[in-house]
Amino acid sequence: MPRYALKVEYHGAPFAGWQRQKDHPSVQGAIESALAKLEPRAHTIAAAGRTDAGVHGLGQVAHCDMDKDWDPDRLAGALNFHLKPAPVSIVACAQVAEDWHARFSALERQYFFRILCRRAPSTHQAGLVWQIGHQLDAAMMQDGANHLIGNHDFTTFRSSICQAESPVKTLDALRIETVDTRWGPEVHFHVRARSFLHNQVRSFVGTLERVGAGAWAPARVGEALSACDRAACGPVCPPQGLYLAAVRYPQDPFAGA
Amino acid sequence: MPRYALKVEYHGAPFAGWQRQKDHPSVQGAIESALAKLEPRAHTIAAAGRTDAGVHGLGQVAHCDMDKDWDPDRLAGALNFHLKPAPVSIVACAQVAEDWHARFSALERQYFFRILCRRAPSTHQAGLVWQIGHQLDAAMMQDGANHLIGNHDFTTFRSSICQAESPVKTLDALRIETVDTRWGPEVHFHVRARSFLHNQVRSFVGTLERVGAGAWAPARVGEALSACDRAACGPVCPPQGLYLAAVRYPQDPFAGA
Known about the structure:
2 copies of one chain form a homodimer.
Chain A: E1 3-10, H1 27-38, E2 46-47, E3 56-65, H2 72-83, E4 88-96, E5 108-117, E6 130-132, H3 138-146, E7 150-153, E8 168-181, E9 184-193, H4 200-212, H5 219-227, E10 242-248
Parallel strand pairs in A: 3-10, 5-6
Antiparallel strand pairs in A: 1-3, 1-4, 2-3, 5-9, 5-10, 7-8, 8-9
Helix pairs in contact in A: 1-2, 3-4
């Protein structure tokens, strides 16, 4: 069966998360239903990252197996037609080898997080950022974040329901920048790792927000990490500022698309 | 009565436009209703620009007259509380002189327009951009736009229902730039004038899109302008990419806010 890689963008708000669930809308379920309109049978797709309820996709990658040979652009267009009006969009599609796997072939996941710092409610960015009413010191946050980069036991920054076998992961990058926008100052987090623990990015961001607000000294992030104790984590931040931004593979499957 | 200037942000989608209407929701009506929660009586506010249905506010400016002396920050906060859940937000508030007028004191209006160029439907920017499925040549568009800058009879680029006394206006700037975003290439228009005719910006953008797509030579924009004939205009583009970005006054009323 020909296999296709799909680059998927979605708005997290209406979904219980990526993963198909029995009684709740999911991004996976929406795409599988659209696939069933094209080739009527049960479809099961695999994705690079199983995002939580409310988390957005910008460059999520999934793969599907089809009975027929599809022109990749036509397949993307047909899926987008059937996905309407769900806020899920196939932004690229490419045929891949039949042993290529969206999850297991991935070398790195990149997440992106947006905090908007302003008092007045945002009318255009609501649902797309974590809005807080105070300013943040991004340099202090970066000092705190630097304790997290590298190979560590991340038990502190892992949800109690995380199913990963080991809490030891390598965090390749956690870069924080301030961005002035037309609607106010934002703080952006760029996070890269081969793989992540459940709630790891939101545990990082919620903890580093405490540093940026002046409530935590940067060194306390290192102490929290060393404690290997979930209770040492700062508050886990809400999901709506989080985006699965990109997935890296040995070769970009969409390079020619 | 103390007078307050309000900087107002709003999402245009749910509104029939800025101006109060009998049977349709309006931004003006939403703010006047919130004011009536604070000082129960009829309120009438004035704004720098009367935006159309679907057009967004980023830096709209209005003024209101109050019976009581309000701390400006408290007034903004109380209005935002009562405006919920309407997507209207008071992002700044300042007391001004009693003869200061949001409309008549304004020296210049600045509009901002976003086109998103990509085929797949946008899940995060829907309603915030005019999305088109093809690429645009921004340099050609700027060549076309340059014919419009300056003092001209803009009859061609004016809605047939425009109520302005004269079609002669001075366009101070029409700058076009391309911006690469995480969700695809955008073309941005930055437009400045003391005042605008009805549908003038959307007539410009719709016409210049034809230039960017290669359907019109840039010189045809100058010919259309010289014709002083509404029929010579290109198509008027949809409203959801348009933002009233800022209003300039002799002194920035929010400078200290």
